[in-house]
Amino acid sequence: MNDSNPLSSLKPRRPAWNKGKMPGPKPPLRPGHVWAIRAKLQLEKRTRDLAMFNLAIDSKLRGCDLVALRVDDVAPNGYAIDRANIRQRKTGRPVRFELTEVTRQALDEYLGASGHGPGEYLFAGRCGPDHPLTTRQYSRLVAEWVSGIGLDPRKFATHSMRRTKATLIYRRTGNLRAVQLLLGHLKIERTVRYLGVVKPLALRLSAKTGCEQVQRPLLECLEIETGCYLQ
Question: Is domain 31-173 classified as CATH 3.40.1400.10?
Fold first, then answer.
């Protein structure tokens, strides 16, 4: 009689994808974190990472949209422009964002050093200029940036980049409608959940500020003012 356990012949299960990770929404970076990461990247002369980090903060784009950017999207004439407009992959809706002076300078230095031209991906991957950086590679870079200044990389992710400037704008203005437009959200409820705002307070604020009251000049002023605060 064979007393061996039939379960012993089974292959071991693959570890869970989130083993060792901290699930749930990731917090935004604080202004001090932004300054520290920028300073570290500048000292290490990592022009690509500095341009990518600054652009991620300013654009508030999802990781899939950030890595898919082409040179023409932010520098159609060979140098970085003041504001850009792209179409989001997730929603299909266009979103516009401002580029601060710090970001434009970092992009110009990066483009000059890399030699990327019109039509090419802004941040090329390992497979050559015809293939963009993958979202997984971008995620690893974010973990490297935050761990480089002593933060726990498990607590932050690519959405921390997207949340940083949006959260700062909301905290300084309380204008949910403006943040909704800047993030490209279809519904205000999505912005409420994204920012982690208490719902009754959010509803009162959104009732005070209608969509028709949020004009493009106001959005540009909010972006520029907040960008200067982060510089």
Answer: no
Domain regions of the chain by residue span? 31-173
The confidence score (pLDDT) of residue 222 equals 56
Q: Which of 44, 61, 218 is nearest to 52 (CA)?
A: 61
Beta bridge partners of 94: 87
pTM: 0.79
pLDDT in tens, 96-150: 999 999 999 999 999 999 988 889 999 998 877 788 999 999 999 999 999 999 9
Query: 111 is written with which tokens?
Result: 């483009």
DSSP code, position 70: B
What is the Cα 117 distance to its own chain's centre? Answer: 23
- Residue 228: beta bridge partners? none
At residue 10, the pLDDT reads: 58
CA angle, corner 130, sides to 102 and 94, nearest 5? Answer: 55
Residues 6+ apart with CB under 8 A from 86: 61, 65, 69, 73, 94, 95
Count the neighbouring beta carbons within 10 Å of the beta carbon of residue 40: 16
Are the C-beta atoms of 192 and 176 separated by less than 8 Å? yes
- Per-residue pLDDT tens over the stretch 20-33: 565 667 899 999 99
